[in-house]
Amino acid sequence: MSVDVDSLLDWFAETARDLPWRRPECTPWGVLVSEIMLQQTPVARVEPVWLDWMARWPRPSELAAAAQGEVLRAWGKLGYPRRALRLHEAAAAIAERHDDVVPSDVDTLLALPGIGAYTARAVAAFGYQRRCPVVDTNVRRVVARAVHGAGDAGPASNTRDMSDVDALLPDDDFRAARFSAALMELGATVCTARAPRCAVCPISHECAWQHAGRPEYTGPAKPVQRFAGTDRQVRGLLLDVLRGTAEPVAKANLDVVWSDAGQRDKCLDSLLVDGLVEQTADGRFALPGEHG
Description:
Blueprint: H1 5-15, H2 28-38, H3 43-56, H4 60-64, H5 68-75, H6 82-97, H7 106-110, H8 117-128, H9 137-146, H10 158-168, H11 173-189, H12 208-211, H13 231-243, H14 251-255, H15 261-273, E1 278-279, E2 285-286
Antiparallel strand pairs: 1-2
Helix pairs in contact: 1-11, 2-3, 2-8, 9-11, 13-15
């Protein structure tokens, strides 16, 4: 089981997207922020928000000093806003426990609030150029096709997926980290799920899927995530109202965003429980930490 490391690294050096968190001047903190933002959110939406955050909060201690409401406001419409609060908590822990320096060790990163296995490995690899398997959906698809000859990866298996990628990584830390980034880039831009561009793939000559005649994927269907009408949409609409004003708002201002009162009130309650919204002493609603 192998992938032509040199061919993939040469391709990556020539064609990789110029993303700000990939540039040499980006700190491990910048990498951590990008990884949290990129979870379930496209690069095009993340980049302007990331640039604003790094200009405003270039160090963890500066983000930790910001009010939660300010952090949520800056998060904007990236979605899944609890990620912003988890990042805020992680920043405080980094400032307090690690002298404002993002840890380089995976286990130490995992001990930070809200940092999971994928993010910890990504920061070690891309922030510190460590040899560390990093597996996302794009990497799983490339490995499934190039190595196993399958049209897609099927259900995730952490043990199998990590083992597959670890077996492909070069021994050298720096080359391994670049290789991990190149695998992701290949899956995101060439070896895509619906329209793979095999003619420009740098490893097509050794791709098991190509040699097998590009068979269709016949495994379990992946669930399709819908958005319209979901609690996630309603929560976003409620937060939009609060982000759009500097003052707490009355319940009536929130009621107009969704006609189903039961669903709307359930979503407002869930935002309160999650700490994304606070109720003021006079019964109005605001982003957390901005008003008494």
